[in-house]
Amino acid sequence: MEYEYDVAVIGTGTSAYMLAYPCRSAGKSVVMIDSRPYGGTCAMRGCQPKKYFIAASELVEGASRMQQIGIKKKPEIDWPSLIRSKNAFTDPIPEGTEKGFRKAGIATLHGHARFSGMNQIRVGEREITAKNIVIATGADPRPLNIDGENHLTTSDQFMDLTSLPKEIVFVGGGYISFEFAHVANQAGSKVTVLQRSDRVLKRFEPDLADRLVDSSRASGIGIELQTCVSRIEKRGNRLMIHCLEGPEKRFEADMVVHGGGRAPALQDLNLEAGEVTYTNKGVDVDGYLQSVSNPSVYAIGDAADTPFQLATTADMEGEVAAKNIIHGNHATADYSVVPSVVFSLPPLAAVGMGEVEAQKSGRKIRVNRGDMTGWPSSRRIGQKYAAYKVIIDEQSHQILGAHLLGHNAEEAINVFAMAMRFNLKTDDLKQMLWAYPTYISDLKYMIG
Predict the structure, then answer these.
(1) For the segment 181-193, what is each residue's pLDDT rounded down to a tens digit?
(2) Separation between Cα atoms, residue 411 and residue 414, nearest integer Å
(3) What is the rounded average pLDDT for all residues in the chain?
(4) What number of helices (H) and strands (E) belong to the chain?
(5) Alpha-carbon gap, residue 17 to 25, rounded angstroms
(6) Is residue 168 part of a domain?
(7) 387 forms bridges with which residues in the sheet?
């Protein structure tokens, strides 16, 4: 078969460009295809713009905490100005991304890509043949399959609101709900989170997640557990949320935000025509990120059935797939040390094994845990909810897992991740002369 391109990439997010540039540098012809503005979720609708909202809410919440310490006035969020600042960041991204591709000699196309064969995709009226096709389409809000689902507001739409409504309900107890619930709460909205099970943030340690629930409730956020939304009904300008499984509950709000998780964006790709197998977790791939049913296809990022939906792992997967396309399958993704963070107030962070997993591993472990609210680093900022759990192998004295709740947890977790990645022992970390007093220097008390 004569190929028009060596590599055709569907999607232009973080995993896509981490793959495209190395392939082009290796002399391969590459085409990028996207039905949305170039840039992908992380840059346009996720990690980066989200932090504009979180930074503003952190400042307001921090000033509120410190009013009994020495701060007189609590600042307020100017929502329209915040949106303008966020847009000033995101608006140039599509053009800049596309220009970068073209400067590197990478072709760009706009439109919906659909498989028409194992090595063929159709974009509009154009048929493209490629030696390798890479699926990097990211994820979309997961269908909840409830009546009135069309009344849900997505996180993308939330970040484009010109003003915030007075009352907001978030459906689901995951990352999106907790992060944006805290933002909306600090911006002055009345907020409620509805979680269908008895646990929120299930990737994190239950005891620390429970403390975050306590902190959220103390800040004024309503959190309803074992509350399954069955129907959303519009009545005038208000929305009625019906929860019929178990004891009947009903909530009313101006807006209902979808926080029920995200699913791989595969539905419009006509994967059957490309003989690409997939599940609701993503494209079926092997350790090389190659489709198990079509060797011409690779899948990376949120579109692939891999353990994490994070920008960092998407980057890694793009790099790994690029190496395999260029040099033949030899590289595999390493998910052994992957830190993750919920950017709530306070943030919740984790890396490595949880306590139950460590207990089942057969290792002799020590679990260091404690409350940090009495520590100087918490007292000087008025922090009322802060805790840690560090899991240590008693024989090797290496860290197996670290779990943090509190100010600066999102930075401190990276130090734990580095120690785990490079097999540092607890004594190695104790010998480090940390700048003091800093939040990172508290680490020595967590592992002592």
Answers:
(1) 999 999 999 999 9
(2) 6
(3) 96
(4) 14, 24
(5) 12
(6) yes
(7) 371, 405
Residues 74, 373: Cα–Cα separation, whole Å:
22
Residues 126 and 23 occupy one common structural domain: yes
Type of residue found at 29: S
DSSP code of residue 285: B
Name the token pair of 281: 């977790």
Asked if residues 274 and 259 have their Cβ atoms less than 8 Å apart, the reply is no
β strands within 89-154, DSSP E = 107-110, 113-117, 120-123, 126-135, 139-141, 152-153
| pLDDT band with cut points at 50, 70 and 90 for residue 214 | very high
Of 225, 243, 260, the last residue of a domain is 260
The tally of domains found in the chain comes to: 3
Does residue 384 contact residue 214 with C-beta atoms inside 8 Å? no
User: For residues 118 and 3, what is the distance between their CA atoms, to the nearest angstrom?
Assistant: 12
Element (H, E) at 176: helix 175-186
Pick from 321, 278, 314, 317: nearest CA to 296: 321
pLDDT digits over 242-279, tens only?
997 666 789 999 999 999 999 999 999 999 999 999 99
Structure tokens at 402: 């670290």
Residues 6+ apart with CB under 8 A from 167: 189, 190, 191, 192, 252, 253, 254, 255
By three-state DSSP, how is residue 351 classified?
A: strand
Reduce the DSSP state of residue 216 to 3 states and report it: helix
pLDDT the model gives residue 245:
65
pLDDT score for 249: 86
Is the Cβ–Cβ distance between 405 and 211 less than 8 Å? yes
Mean pLDDT of 88-107: 98
Domain that holds residue 435: 346-447
Whether 340 is in a domain gets the answer no
Report d(CA 44, CA 90) in Å as an integer.
6
The answer to whether 414 and 387 are in contact (CB under 8 A) is no
pLDDT tens profile 59-82? 999 999 999 899 998 899 999 999
